[in-house]
Amino acid sequence: MSEIIVVDNGSTDATASVALQAGARVVAEPIAGYGRACLRGLAALGVSVDTVVFMDADHSDYPDDLPMLLDPIAEGRADLVIGSRLRRAQPGSLTLPQRLGNRLACALMRWWFGARYTDLGPFRAIRREALERLHMQDHAFGWTVEMQAKAARCRLRIEEIPVRYRPRIGRSKISGTLKGTVRAGMAILTTIVRIALTPSPHLCADS
Fold it and tell me: Band of the pLDDT at 110, cuts 50, 70, 90?
């Protein structure tokens, strides 16, 4: 069984109605927050879904790249597959602060956890059982890095796949403003430090 869930995180445009017309199931999360929206979508998943894919709804990701993310999981090679945008991103799709922030975050995770990430790309796939082991908690900007840091600490099988990336439609509340960029950067760094200092028994649930 497969299903498409669109989380309406307080949008002011026609996102919900367009998604409904296209056949998706729309759930509302009125309190703003990227992680909060992801958690709301997870809570709405049917019990038979065994693999979860996260994708931004701002036209920046390419849905056609989805099979590349699912193949390593379907073949039993990976628990988590990250779509890395760096090599295939279109000009202007990633800002300089995003690139620098990604580089710093990935360097810290390699230093502390031995994880060889290149990106914090939001387009990703993960086995549901593995995701439940991570006990995701972040409600805002630290969601993607929390998943990657915990996955490394909990010794999940992880792969990165280069994916295409294009300039988003509209203005980002995070990378599109100085305030959003600073807040996201602080949240990412704080999340990495917190996970590095948390003992493994309190971090990873039994599989």
Answer: very high
Whether domain 50-202 has CATH 3.90.550.10: yes
d(CA 156, CA 68): 19
Helices (H), ranges, the chain: 15-21, 34-43, 66-74, 96-113, 128-134, 143-153, 178-197
Task: Label residue 172 left, alpha or beta by phi (over 0 means left) and psi (-120 to 50 means alpha).
Answer: beta
Question: For residue range 32-46, what is the model confidence (pLDDT) as tens digits?
Answer: 999 999 999 999 999
Residue pLDDT, tens place only, 47-64: 999 999 999 988 999 999
Residue reference for tokens 């990495």: 192
Q: Where do the domains of the chain lie?
A: 1-49, 50-202
CA distance 81 to 21: 30
DSSP label of 155: T
Count of other CB atoms within 10 angstroms of residue 71: 15
pTM of the model: 0.92
